[in-house]
Amino acid sequence: PFVAKATGVPLAMAAARVMVGQTLADLRAEGLLPEDADGRVRVLDHVSVKEAVLPFDRFPGVDTLLGPEMRSTGEVMGVDRTFGLAFAKSQMAAGTRLPDSGTVFLSLADRDKPAGLEVARAFSALGFSIAATLGTAGYLRSAGVPVETLVAKVGESGVASDAVDLIAQGKVQLVVNTPRGLGPRADGQHIRQASVTYKVPCLTTLAAARAAAAGMADARAHPLEVRPLQDLHPAPKSARR
């Protein structure tokens, strides 16, 4: 269904027609398949992003770090002119609205820190305040990325507040947490659970964080619009019968 809606090609219908004896050439001739549906890459004027819907808010205490045993309760799709806008729409459809201002909390595994610089710079350029754990903050500051808030490990007493406290107090609008190792993973689970409890978007991969930054930037330049799929993909004549 996703590919059919993203491309406007009714694949299930075409497959059924092929199974009863029609050829792809027949389907192209009658307009069910596009003329260029011969294995070449189609160039579309829009981008489609699929997102899984996972009901973490119904199961308090469940870790939101995705694993192979998890099952989604549905899927949604965001479509727009750029990847960033399409990603932002997909998150909104799944129940997660990306913030347009505030503080981004970063807690990165050592392996992710070099690539995480790009993400931190992107959020900083968008005007977000950066909060980070001590290790991540030190790495970012050494590379010239401003970190306004130092965050202690979960449950650690001291001058700095821990991430769970900051999330509970409404001082964090977006969480980027890529844990590794038993200690950081346990801390990360508390952080992710707090994000679910207080409805703060939480991203667990740098790929998702990059996409979120792109979505925020594009949404500022081009306000989100609603368009029906029928405007993107007029139904082929044979499908209207």
Task: Present the secondary structure layout.
Elements: H1 2-7, H2 11-19, H3 24-29, E1 47-53, E2 74-80, H4 83-93, E3 103-108, H5 113-125, E4 129-133, H6 134-142, E5 149-151, H7 163-168, E6 174-178, H8 182-197, E7 202-203, H9 206-221, H10 229-232
Parallel strand pairs: 3-4, 3-6, 4-5, 6-7
Antiparallel strand pairs: 1-2
Provide an overview of this structure.
The protein is α/β, with parallel strands linked by helices and 241 residues long. The protein folds into two domains: 42 residues, no CATH class; 175 residues, Rossmann fold (3-Layer(aba) Sandwich), CATH 3.40.50.1380. It is built from ten helices and seven strands. The strands form two sheets. It has a five-stranded parallel sheet with strand order 5-4-3-6-7, with helices on both faces. Helix 6 links the parallel strand 4 and strand 5. Helix 4 packs across helix 9 and helix 5 packs parallel to helix 9. It is elongated, with a radius of gyration of 22 Å. The protein starts with a helix and ends in a 9-residue tail after the last helix. The mean pLDDT is 85.
